[in-house]
Amino acid sequence: MPRPEVNYVIAPRSEDIPFSQFAQYEVDVCWPSQRTILEVDSYLYHSDSEQINSDAKKRNSLKSMGWKVISVTDGQLSGDTLDVLMRQVAKDLKVRLKAPKPELRDWLLEELP
Q1: How far apart are CA 95 and CA 73, in angstroms?
Q2: pLDDT band at residue 75 using 50, 70 and 90 as cut-offs
Q3: pTM of the prediction?
């Protein structure tokens, strides 16, 4: 699986401005060339209605701009659930992932916000 960019900033292209609600978007994990994003909705930072509304606007704008957005929660970042998530991401990236490699799994856990 290709290594992603972490805390990647996306600026809307001119043709995307009608769909954008913000001047730029910082996403948790991104594979820019595949236009795929992984957003982590941690229980710590995504529990109030204002943050939930902001996240929904962000995701809807990014999807309208042609980005694939995968959302995960803290509960999906451990055990077998993380392995399933990695297979889902690999499918979206159109790469073959025979079995999650421990070093990639460990790196992902360290890098996620």
Answers
A1: 23
A2: confident
A3: 0.79
Domain tally, the chain: 1
Which pair of structure tokens corresponds to residue 38?
């992984």
What number of other Cβ atoms are within 10 A of residue 81's Cβ? 13
CA dist 37 and 70 (Å) reads 6
Structure tokens belonging to residue 110: 């360290």
Q: Which residues fall within 8 angstroms of residue 84, CB to CB, at 6 or more apart?
A: none
| Residue 54 burial (10 A CB sphere; 0-12, 13-18, 19+) | middle
User: CATH number for the domain including 24?
Assistant: 3.40.960
Domain containing 13 equals 5-111
Q: Answer yes or no: are the C-beta atoms of 57 and 63 closer than 8 Å.
A: no
